[in-house]
């Protein structure tokens, strides 16, 4: 029997498709939840840092107290997870900056919801008073380790999913083999009843189709046997009627001869 026609193959394929669909939906939902929650938390954390920095350094920005601003940015840049801190005036002139040199060289680009988290998460807050713009504070958070952890989580989840699919396929193979073996025995018994003596090797279809075909053959054989039995009974009844008529005729002749 061709494996692609086997009931076991169909069972493995069906279970595999269901497992793959459910696993894809589950992993996508989990990853979306993790990324959305993590992105929202990072955005909130970055904005809180900027808000605090604005509250502390806004007076120095207005007064252009560069030494104090440099001290502020150095202190904030020294905190774990901070890539850089930059302060500019209303004309975009740099007042103070500190942090990783490569991060400082990157152009500022604010993160938008729905985007993948960059390795350097940037946020910005303008400093204004009485409707006037005095400058801006830019903060970048280093997300290299977090992104690496998320990537590792994806890889581990995919590996667990692959292991789950492998186990499901293996179990379905065992169950399919058990069912196919039982059906093969049933087919063998039916063929023994029909006395065909053929091997269990269907040309097309799975084992159930083969069993159905053998049962249909058995039914046809039983119908033929019933027809033969009715014909024989009819023949016997005809012969019996003929014998009875002949016997009656002979009896009548004997009685007539004795009567004479």
UniProtKB/TrEMBL annotation:
It comes from the Bacteria. The chain crosses the membrane at residues 12-34, 158-180. The keyword Membrane applies. The keyword Membrane applies. Keywords: Membrane, Transmembrane, Transmembrane helix. This is HAMP domain-containing protein. It comes from Marinobacter xestospongiae.
């Amino acid at each position: 029997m061709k494996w692609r026609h086997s009931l076991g193959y169909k069972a493995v394929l069906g279970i595999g498709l269901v497992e793959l669909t459910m696993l894809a939906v589950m992993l996508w939902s989990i990853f979306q939840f993790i990324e959305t929650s993590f992105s929202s938390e990072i955005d909130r954390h970055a904005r809180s840092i900027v808000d605090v920095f604005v509250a502390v350094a806004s007076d120095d920005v207005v007064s252009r107290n560069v030494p104090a601003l440099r001290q502020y940015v150095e202190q904030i840049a020294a905190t774990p997870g901070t890539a850089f801190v930059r302060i500019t005036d209303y004309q975009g002139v740099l007042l103070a900056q500190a942090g990783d040199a490569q991060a400082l060289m990157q152009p500022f680009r604010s993160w938008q919801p729905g985007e993948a988290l960059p390795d350097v998460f940037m946020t910005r807050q303008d400093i204004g008073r009485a409707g006037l713009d005095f400058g801006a504070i830019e903060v970048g958070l280093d997300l290299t380790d977090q992104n690496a952890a998320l990537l590792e989580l994806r890889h581990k989840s995919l590996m667990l999913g692959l292991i789950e699919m492998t186990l499901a396929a293996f179990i379905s193979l065992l169950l399919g083999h058990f069912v196919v073996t039982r059906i093969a025995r049933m087919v063998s018994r039916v063929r023994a009843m029909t006395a065909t003596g053929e091997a269990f090797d269907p040309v097309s279809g799975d084992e159930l189709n083969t069993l159905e075909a053998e049962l249909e053959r058995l039914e046809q054989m039983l119908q033929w046997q019933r027809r033969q039995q009715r014909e024989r009974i009819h023949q016997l009844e005809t012969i019996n009627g003929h014998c009875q008529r002949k016997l009656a005729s002979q009896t009548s002749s004997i009685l007539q001869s004795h009567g004479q």
